[in-house]
Amino acid sequence: MNGAGWFFDMLHVTLYTVFIQNLVFSGGYGTSEAVRIAAKPRRLLLFSSYIVYFGVITSAACRILDFIPAIKALGDTGHTAVFIAVLIVSYVLTAVLFWVVLGAEPKFLSQLGISALNTLVLAVPFINYRAAYSFSESIGTGIGAGVAFFLAVFLISKGMGKLCANKDIPPAFQGTPAIFIYVALLSLAFTGFSGSSLFA
Amino acid sequence: MPANRKQKAGPLQDVFLKGILVHNPILVQVIGICPVVAAAVSLRAAALLAGIYTLILILTEVIASAFLKKTIRWVRVTLYMLIGLVVISPFSCYLEKNNAGIRITVGIYLSLLAANSLAVLRCEKIAVKNTVKYTFFDSLAASIGYSAVFLLVGFIRELVGNGTIWDKPVRFLPRASGMLMPFGGFIVLGFLAATLRAVVIRRYPQHAKAMMIQINPMPVTLKVPTDPATDKISNDTAEAPVINTLVTEAGTETDVPEALENADPPADSEPVNENETSEAEEPGVQDKAEAITHGEDNPVPSESSEEDSGEHSSIAEESSLNTEQEPPQEASQTQAAHTDTPQDQPEGIPGHSNPDLIDQRFMDLLHFLEECDTPSEGNKLTDS
Lengths: 200, 384
Fold this sequence. Notes:
The structure holds 2 protein chains of 2 kinds. Helix content of chain A is 76%, strand content 0%.
């Protein structure tokens, strides 16, 4: 397969993961982190970059490991163990690299942990496995996870500000309930991209 | 609330009340939402996931409290995930062999329970800072609260989305298959959260204030801050909020100006020394919310910083999605300490004794009006 083919395979999966089946709104992955970061979006770009990094690393490593027949023959439980182990190893190696080589503070390493060890990043190899993505497509999923997260947090953050400033919301709905309903509407919008219908 | 207060083991009833209602992990603290919105599409699936996660949460917290208090935090979080994997694996194996249907229904969300942020947050905030006994009861309360919401969401979505209850058809409602999508999960959570708030406000008004959240969203921008003072301050402390909204119990903001006026005057009259500000603000930040103050007694200094437990508790405290809020006066003091950048400080604006109250957009408008008043070439407003 030539380079252009690889690139467009990766690109189409990235776009699919971001817009058609946004991992946050359509899959619910990483929603807790998205809502919490939306209230403090200053580090959004950095956090999303970490997610892209760990998503790509995990996707690549898991895809390579799947070429080993013994691992490929494992069931869902075995693959779960492999994916979690890969994620933990990639996080620890990255953290050690930052700590030893770059002298990172424990505060930074904690942030790195949160961006690595969450449902969104862990979902990436599972999605690749279930969809039987090729290597380049798997990389696209990793990239798409971070971009989808960025888009989700950006949208949630914008609405959250308006919800806070709106004094007409009844007391029972102020705060978290209003945020949930707002996120529901965003999720509904992205669901529309996939062509689903609300009523059977 | 004292800055160095360690969370004490209150009466058992209080622990359960707070864990289930006032500090409900999903409806109030917004943690662990992923499996609820995506996988709780039937009561059976919800019961399975809730039961397994209860086990994971209690085991993880107890183990963290008993053995992991002295482990480095960034290593500790990986151990939580491993504990989750150890708990999930036997269930996953059993379901693969004996009940493949439900295994397919829950999909990858059973495996994703290992990465659920609820366990990490509670371990870092509570387990490693309290005794095993208190941790056990606290984790039990949190898991009851979590499971209750899980089951409710599963029940409602299955009933409305599928027209069944525990796979038995119930034909008195029209089916809305949209409820089986994450959108349906979020909607149900929204209304459940509103119901919970209404109940607590009415039945337990003394705890209602603890449920109030304070969201201070910063504008999302890709612009790199050019002022080093701005960047330094914002990195080291909670950001000066652009939109200040303290929702009081009555849903008004009447307490806010008074609290802020009583607070220490912000450094609006002289340039902010970024080093002094960052050092002075750390205690303020720690005062801001209880979860941040959990770190004060921790012998590892870094764990008492604003970024305690990574982004989880820090986001919780700075976004105030965590319900253990300081009273508005302390919040106002913290806010007063978190000043805008020097160039954003309004000077001599009449009627505004506390510039922190001023919306940034209002400031932009003022500057715009000032520019309009200044005669200049090409100023459309002054052209006649």
